[in-house]
Amino acid sequence: MLIRVVKMKFEQERLSDFLEHFESIKWQVAQFPGCGGMQLLQDLNDPCLLFTYSIWHSEQDLANYRASDLFASIWPKIKPWFAQKAEAWSLNQNFNGFIS
To answer: Which segments of the chain have a pLDDT < 50?
Structure first.
């Protein structure tokens, strides 16, 4: 299992475009084969700063998503809306103290 965190800073005038687009694709990503779920997080002080937090069963599952037609339809659409280059991290989980 791996966790993928993607940091995205949007131009203020494009934020609503992104949020509207995200509503139309969120379940397609969250239910992509090998994805264990996804969250969209928004900074409290800067609403244009968003993060996706997703769980993948394996690195190959994430690679399959990044090579998919779905990803190819999402990333080129939203990339021009960024105020700065997106950053991404693939992380191993060493501890989970969340109570379900």
So the answer is: none
At 99 the pLDDT is 84
Sorted by where each starts, the structural domains of the chain and their CATH numbers stand as 2-91 (3.30.70.100)
Longest Cα pair distance anywhere in the chain, in angstroms? 38
SS3 of 43-84: the string is CCCCCCEEEEEEEECCHHHHHHHHCCHHHHHHHHHHHHHEEE
Model confidence pTM above 0.85: yes
d(C-alpha 46, C-alpha 9), whole Å: 9
